[in-house]
Protein 1
Amino acid sequence: MNKSILITRPNHDLATTYLYWWSKKVIDKCQEKEIKYFDLKGKKASKKNFDSYLKRNNPSFIFINGHGSEEVVTGWNNEILLKVGGQLDVRGRIIYARSCMAGLKLGKVSVDSGAKTFIGYTKNYVLLFLTTKKTRPLSDNLSALFLEPSNLIPISLINGNTVEEADRKSKNLMKKNLREILSSNKSDKKEIASYLWHDIKYQTVIGNNLAKI
C-alpha cells in the first residue's frame, strides 16, 4: 500500500463542477505536503481509469467526488465506479465519498470487503450555491459554508490526522458556520442552517476511526 491519494473529480454538471473546483484545494494540500496523488479529473473519472489507477498505484486513500446512492458512487457522466455487489478493490484503503447516500450500504459493504474506513453520508450530501457564482465556484461564499468543512476531511488526513479527528474537525467547522449564519441578518438563514445541520447529522464514519493514510 502506497501513501498516496486517488482523487476523482468529474465536472459534467453543476454539482460535480463545484466539487471539481473545490477539490483543487485538496490537491494544493497534497502538493504542499509532498503527498503523491492521482487526479482523475473531468472525463478521466471513468470506471476504466479508476480500476487501472487502483491496481497500478495502490493508493492508501480514495477521495471520490460525484453522484451516488445507497449502493453506488459514480464518476464522469454518472458511470458507476464502486457498487454493492461489484468487485471492490478497497482492501486496506480509506475511502471518502463526497456523494449522496453512499454511507448507507456501500460504506458497510466496502468495510466488510476489507476497506479500513469509509467516510460518507447516509442521506443526500447537501450543497447550496449562488446562481450568480456558478461560473466561479471558488468565489461562492454560500457553497464555501458546505465545501470548506467537507474539504477538511481529506485535508486533515493529509496533515496526518486520524479519521476520527478529520470527521470531528469537519463537523466542528459546519457547526461554527451554522452558528454564524443564525446570528447573521440573512433572510434565508434558517434554510441555510437547516441544510448545514443535515450534513452534520448524516456525515458518517464506518470502520476504523483511528486509521490514517
Note: The chain has six helices and eight strands.
Protein 2
Amino acid sequence: MTRIVFRFPGGRYHATPWGHHVNEGLIEWPPSPWRLLRAFVATAFTKLAIPDPVPPEHPLRRLVAALAEALPSYFLPRGTATHSRHYMPTGVLDKGREKTTLVLDASLALGDGALAVVWDGDLDPDCHSLLASIVSQMGYLGRAESWVEGRLLADSDPLPEGDVARPHADGTAPGPGWEQVSLLAPIGVSEFDAWRTDAEAGVAAQFPLPEGKRATPKAILTKRQKALEPFPEDLFACLTRDTAWLQKHGWSQPPGSRRVLYWRRSDSLATMPPRQSARRRPPPVEAALLALASDNCHGDVLPLYTRCLPQAELLHRALVGIAGNGEPAAPPVVTGRDDAGRPLVGHQHLHILPLSLDRDDDRFVDHVLLWAPMGLDSSAQRAILNLHSIWTKGADDLRVTLAGMGSIAEMAAAVGVRTLGPSKVWTSCTPFVPPRFLKKGGANTLLGQVQAELASRGLPEACVEVLPRDEVVRRHLHRFVRTRRDDAKSPPQDCFFGLQLTFAEEISRRPVALGYASHFGLGLFAAE
C-alpha cells in the first residue's frame, strides 16, 4: 500500500472544488485525486529539477500511471469550515478611487489534525523513492496559503486518527450520518489511450488523406494537427495543462479526468457561529502621531498651517464618528464631554495639534499630534487605528497613517520638535485667542487670562510679553483661521495675540497650548 500523511502548519486548508467559483465559499474536502497528482507533478518540476519534457521511461511517468489506476481512500481529521472576506483592488479608477471587488477565502480550520491518503497496491522502488522525495518537498496543497508538510509512511507506521472517506462502489450506501461529495479524478492510462485513439480516428475521418500514391497536401496535415491540439498526447500531459489552455480549447473539465463520488461523514465540515475572540484591552496612552499625505498626483497638496483649526475640526469629527460606530457614544476623551454631556474640566481630554516635520518650512501640516493627558483609552485607540482619510477643503482627501503611539515623553524624544520643548522661553507659533472678553482690570486682563490658562493646565506662572506687530506678521499669525465652523463656538471677541512666555524652570516633553480652541491647534507655543 502507498500511504501519505499531510499536516498543515498554518492550521488551515484552502481549496475550491473544480467547477465552482471561489465566492461560493465551498471547500474541496478531501483533496481530489486529480489535485493530488497535479501537486505531485508540479513539485517534481519545481523542487526536484525533473526535465521538461519528461523522458518516456522516467519514474515520474510510471508513478502517475500507477496512482491513476486506483482511487485512494482518506482518513480525515475533524475541521471547522470558515471564511474571510477581502475587498481586492481591481486596478480600475472611479472618481479618483480604485474600485474593489469582494472575494471570499473559504478554508477548513484543522488545528494540528493530519490528513492521510491511502492507495492500494505497491510502487516499484524507483517510484516509491521518487514519491517520498516529492511529498517531503511539497510546500502547499490547494491554494498557496494552504501550507503543508508531507511524509510517505512505512508499512509499520500507524495512520493518524480520522474519519474514513472512501469511493462509492457497488451502489451501496454506508447509512445515516454520511454524505456524498463529487471529486475530480484521473482516468486510467489504458482508458485514456483508447479515448485518444478514438479522437485521432475522428480527426482522420474529418480530414481524410488522398488515396493512392498522391502526396498529402500540407493544408490537410496542418488541419489535422490543429484539430488534435485539444487532445493531449497522454495522461501525463493532461495533468500539466493550465486553466488558460483549457479555456482556449473549450474544455469545461480537464481531459483525462472524470467525476467520482466519495462518501464522507456528514460532520466532516463542521460549522459553528462566529466566536468573538477575547482581546485584552490595550492600556491607555498619552499621545499618538498621525502622518498626513495627499492623494493628489503631485503629492504636495497638504493643508496650510494657517488652516490648522478647521482641519483639526474635520479630523475630530471623523474620530468621533468612527469611535461612536457601534458604541452607545464616543469616549469622553475624544468628545470632551462626560456621559451626561457635560464638558470636561482640566483640559485632560484630546488635543489635536498641527506639526510640520517633513518640510523645509512650516507652511504645511504634514503630521498631527493627538495628545490627551487623561490617556487615550481602547475605544479612542481603535478609532485612531481605523482613521484612514479625512476631507480637506479644495483638494482631494488626505490619507492618514498612524506613525506611533506612546507617552508624550516618548513622542518628544522620537519627533524632536520645538512644540514639545524643552525650554524656559516659549513663543507663539499659532495665535493666542483669549477665551473670555478682555477687561482693563481684574482677572480677565490679557495677563490674567494667560496665567489662568497656565494654572488650569498645571503649568507654573510665566512672564508674559506681547510680540510686536512686525514679529506677528513675520510669523504669519494674522493669517490663521481663528473661528470654528459652529457659530455658537466662536470666540467671545475677534482678537488675537502673539506672545512670549518665560518660565522660571524649564518646561520639557509636553506641549504648551493655551486659550480659545487650544484643543484644535490655536494658542500653540514653541520652545525657543
Note: The mean pLDDT is 90.
Protein 3
Amino acid sequence: MKSIPIVSRIILLTFFTLFFLGSVLSGYITGYLGVDNAYDLKRILVVLFIVCSAVGLLWRPSIPIIVTSPFTLWVVASLFILGLLSTLFSQHPFWSFVELANFLLLLCLFYVIGVLIADIGRTAALQYFFGFALFFSICIAVKFFLLLLFHALDDNRPDVHSLVAGFMNVRFFNQLQVMLLPLLCLSFYIEPLKKYKRTAMLAFSVQWLILLQSEARGALLAIVLAAVVVYRFLPANLGQAFIRPMLKAVVFGTLLWLALIIIIPLFIFDSPIWQLRTNSSGRIDMWIYILQAIPERIGLGYGPMSFAWAEARPLPNAHSHNALMQFLYEFGVVAFILLASWSLIILWSILKRLTLLGEKPSEHLAKNSQCSLDTGSHIGIDTDTTDIVLVFALCAIWIYAMFDGVIVMPLSQALLVALLALNCRHYQLRVIALPWKVVLMAAVITCGALLIASLGDTALNQQMYPRLWLTGIIN
C-alpha cells in the first residue's frame, strides 16, 4: 500500500507536466506531435490524461471517492438530464452530445484529482499545486521579459498578445492567472512554504505586470473583487496577514508596469504600446442577443454547444464569454437557475467557513502533512487557513467566468475542476464491482474517443473561433 501515494504523486506530477507542455512549451512541440495549433494540443493532452489516469485508477481494488452533498449530486444529475433532453431537440445533436461527453470527462477528472489528493494528503497536494504555480509563473515571467527585450532591440512594437507565448490568445492565459495567482498565497499559511514567500510575491508582482500589460480588465477586476470579499469575511488579524503581502506585490507590479510598459517604451517606440480600452469587446451585444433569443426555447435552450452555430449572433464567437449566459442559451432557463443558485450557495458556504477561523485559529494544521482519507467512512479535516487561498481562487474565477470563456478553454476547465476537488474534504473508500469497472472504463474511453474523433470533422468551420477545438464554429 505504500506504493499508492508514490503512484498518485507521479500521476499528479504528470498532470502538471502535461499542463506545462500544453502551455509554456506548446509552441515547440505542436509540430513534433503533428497537431496544427497549440489550442487543439491542450485539448488533446487534457483528454488523454483523463482517460489514462481514470482507467489506471479503476484497476485498484478500492478507491477513495469524494463525497459531495446530496444537493450537489442532485444539481449535477439534473444538469446532465436537462442536457440530454436539450440534445434531443438540438439542431446538431452530435455536437451537443460531444459537449456532454466533454463535461462527463471533466466530472471524471474531478474524481481523479480527488483520489490523488486523498492518497497524497491535502496539505501535501497543496504544496504540489503551489510548486507548480510558482514554477509556471517564473517560466512565463522569463519568457515575457525576453520577448519584451527582443521587441525593444528589433524596434518592433508589441501588442497585448505578443509578449505571452504558448497561447493562441492572451485571454486563455489570463484565465489561468486568475486561478494560479491565489495559489501563490499558500506560502502565507503552509509552514514548509513560508521560506518561498518573497519569491512567490515577486512572481505575483510580475504576473500583475502581465495582467496590466495584456489589458486584462476582467481578470484584474476578478482578482481585486475576490480579494476584497475574502478580506471582508476574515477576522481582523487574518485579514491583515492576507491582504498586506498582496498589496505590496500589486504596488510593485504596478511600478514595474509603469516603468517597463508606459515610460521606457516612449523612448524606444514612436507611440505608446499600451492603451486603455473602454468598450465591451462585443460581450454586451452577445448577452443581449442571448436574452432576446432565449424566449423561443426557454425551457431546454438550443442544445449544448449551440452557441457555436447560433444564427445572426452579433459576433462570430463560438461561446458567449459568460458562463451563466452560456448555460441559459444552451441548456435553458431551468439549468441556468440551477447552476446560478448552486454556485452562489457554494460560494456563500465557503466564505462563511472563513469566519470559523476567528473562533478556532488552526494554522498549525497546515504545518504537518495530513490525509483527508481515513479508513472509516466520512473523514475530513478541520477548517484551516489554507481555505483562505482556495476561497480566494474560486471567488476570483467565478467572477471572471462572467466575462470570459473559463468553462470553455481546455486548461482552464481542467484547473477549475482541480480547484473544486481541492475544496472538497470528505472521502469514502469504495470497492467498485468488476462489471461496474468495465462499464466506467468503456464510458470514459468512449467519451475520449468521441472528442478526439470530432477533431477535423467537416462540420467545423475553418475560422479560428475556439470552442471544443480552435475551429469551434459549427456550419
Note: Residues 360-382 have pLDDT under 50 and may be disordered.
